[in-house]
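Support reply, case 0932

Customer input (verbatim):
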Amino acid sequence: MFVTVSDISLELALIGAGTLFGAGLIKGLMGVGMPLFAVPVLVTFMDLPTAVVTMMVPVFVTNFQQALQARQPAAIVRRFAGLLVPMIGCAIFSALYLITIDLTTGSLVLGIVVIVFALFQMSRLRWTIAPRLETWLNPPIGALAGILGGASNLFGPPLIMYLVALKLDKDEFVGAIAVFFLIGSVALYVTLFANGVLTTAGVLLSAAAAVPAVIATYAGNYLRRFIDQRQFERALLVVLILIGANLMRRVF
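Our regenerated output:
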């Protein structure tokens, strides 16, 4: 049964607010990691579908917030238009035909790839992508992110790996990933709403959850200025390893 705002006690509300605050702080600092931190905690007192829906407004609003703070967001859209167009199309297609996708095998393979990539980047050997290759790589990366995002709301892993390999600085990375997530989530949420997956009760619960997340994201955005580029990259690779481990955990 779907949990509503009226079903949640004061104690659970405080736990949920603390969880969303912590997730928002991570989002502000790194630009990613909000669902990774929040969903495993939320599912201890609500079912998984409710937890996923609860995260929708916080994820959307914080991505919108960081996209507005990006350096020249219009330039990001122009630069990565070849990625965004197939991502949107594939996200809609994937969300509409969700039942036909084998998420178990896909999650296992993607989890392994993400962990190997992060460990490789932590070594002295670094995988980098020259900007001249973006024209060719943008479409397949966007398509892969869209398929994963439409099926599971996990747009992040291929996009994060791609931007890490492009060697963007920390503020460029956060701005670009926020724009990607924002555009992808709009396509996904509109599709889910049209299919009747999103309800008024779910949206109200998610809107309440957005309050502590947004406040913490502002705090994280401020604190990011005190982290140097190398520390940021190392922390981001740790987040990638956790994402990969979480994908593999879902399989087993």
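We compared this against your earlier run and they match. Two observations from our side: The chain has one domain: 5-251. The chain is about 75% helix and 0% strand. Please reopen the case if you see a mismatch on your end.
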